[in-house]
Amino acid sequence: MLSVHFLPDNVTVQASAGANLLQLALEAGVHINAACGGDGACGKCRVLIKSGTTESRECEKLPPDDYAQGWRLACRTTVLSDVVVQIPHETKLDMKSVREARVHAHETRYAVSAAANIALSEVSPPPVAKYALTLTPPSINENAADLTRVQRSLKKTFNLHAASIDHSALKALPHVVRSSNWQLTASVLGRRILSLEPGDSSAAQYAAAFDIGTTSLWGQLIDINGRSVLAEVSSYNPQIQFGDDVISRIVYSQKKDGLARLQQTVAAELNQLLAELLDKSGIEAATLSHITAAGNTVMTHLLLGIDPKYLREAPYVPAAVIVPQLQASAVGLAVPECVPLFLLPCVASYVGGDIVSGVVASGMYDSEKLTLYIDIGTNGEIVIGHRDWLMTASCSAGPAFEGGGLTCGMRAAPGAIEGFNIDEGTLEPMIVTVGRKRPRGICGSGAINILAAFMQAGIIARNGKFDRSFFPQRIREGAAGVEYILTPAELSATDADIVITESDIDNVIRAKAAMFAGYHALLEKAGLAFSDLQQVIIAGAFGDYIDLENAIAIGLFPDIPRDRYLFIGNGSLLGARCGALSDRCLQLAETVARKMTNIELSEDHSFMDKYISGLFLPHTDSALFPTVTERLARKGKSSS
């Protein structure tokens, strides 16, 4: 690891060779003026390299004489050795706790469970396994049926009793065995032969895993034998055109042809993602053995074309929570008829396979620690407990944390503003985008960082309203109300101002209030307090970008010791991948789903009280956020 020392802040961080200097500064809590997101267009992130070796792209914003003297643009500079960097504008922010939180999050981000390790080990067979067979050709003296020969070979060679065979495999059997000189490969699910291929194709075995989210879809192509991910893709869930959340989609499903449109739309997009996965990895659809998918209960119903009407009406009853294996082609997926689809089991009307998938993948189900598991998405889901008991609930956070519902919102794709800070002396913003491209919009984690910075600088009050006299150069009356200009049109990738409005801030505050009220209500049901928590696991693709300290500062996460937090990324997709690799993990998911006790927060009056209390930054009860309150109080004293 390399050492990067920032002056005059006197902050040192560790970095890998090739790390970007602007990103390192943001992670270290060192402010560098940057308005273009790291694209090199604004020229404001000038730094002086005092010592060490760096690599920097030429830029018209940096005159040759300055370059010769050691000046660089941080956004275009990577470190190649230990480096000392002089920042021309001092920052007066105390970012020690931020740095510690970020380091901890980085170290624990990809912690996985024993279940994931089981899936990655070769001793755990996949749900569908391939067996290479060499049969003894028949003769006039020994003319047993072709299927009998296959069954005998499976029993003798692999101690596997195949009691049944799919019709399509049986029809192909006579031609397959004779075209390959009695050498073939059987794909077997349990005791059922799904398909037969000529020759030995056992080395080519692949599966697809999907996370079917309300706002986003994610997919991976998995090499079963290599136990590795060959490709990953994602997109918006196109059902969003029919409604932002699960309730609006249930309502739409009741319209004429509404359910069919919802089902066909998501199936078509999954086919598009599957085609991208196959193209990226150079794999043919014919070599797919199986598909696994995890989604909340409504998304699961809609994928299957099952009427979700009764999920919304008391007593909130799903058609099924544990769906038996079915043919993937039956729901419109463009794969051979023999490819089975395994859906991770759901728990209740609004607690689905995505949360079960994450609980299995995280290892929470088998931990002795009292754990709060949080999957943040449009439909936020929560689990509290440990190996002896699990209690779960769901609360609708809306799409704000996935970039939806914001004036300039977008997913965490290149050009999305994710890193944000404000210099309290100059009020200049520091903006870093995903991929360090010109800003195109704001992702969910970016919105959290923006709100936290606004709070720290005093630009917004605790109710989320702007102090319009504070920064007239950037705060103005816009078409959608009062707004703050993050990036002017000339520096954006859209040729339009990138802004965040008071309405956007309200959306984020409502979303974080719903999530926090959910944890609070669930803990209260169990007779526990936040201080009792020994571990908090953050899941969801959103968690890959989130700044822990800022999320606590706005009241999204509980204010407890930061070393109790773990990040696992997209737990739903991780669990689906585990299921694709291991039949044991699929069985474990059913066990975990049956163990979870669901609490309907919509029927809990205390939830609404807690939600209303959460509609402030960070909360109306300052005692719940002691470190945030102390930090803001110190700032108030220092500015007075």
Please provide a written account of the structure.
Helices cover 32% and strands 24% of the residues. It has 640 residues and is α/β, with parallel strands linked by helices. Among the domains are: 90 residues, Beta-grasp domain (Ubiquitin-like (UB roll)); 71 residues, Ubiquitin-like (UB roll) (Roll); 147 residues, Domain of unknown function (DUF4445) (Nucleotidyltransferase, domain 5, 2-Layer Sandwich), CATH 3.30.420. Strands 14-13-12-15-17-16 form a six-stranded mixed β-sheet, sandwiched between helices. A hairpin with a 3-residue loop joins strand 18 and strand 19. The two termini are 42 Å apart. About 4% of the residues have low confidence.
Could you give a short description of this structure?
By secondary structure, the chain is an alpha/beta fold. The chain is about 30% helix and about 25% strand.
Count of extended strands? 29
Structural class by SSE content: alpha/beta
Question: Could you tell me how far the N terminus lies from the C terminus, measured between alpha carbons in angstroms?
Answer: 42 Å
Question: What count of helical segments does DSSP give?
Answer: 18
What name goes with the CATH superfamily of the domain at 207-353?
Answer: Domain of unknown function (DUF4445)
Mean pLDDT: 88
Strand neighbour order, sheet with most strands: 14-13-12-15-17-16
* Relative strand content: 15-25%
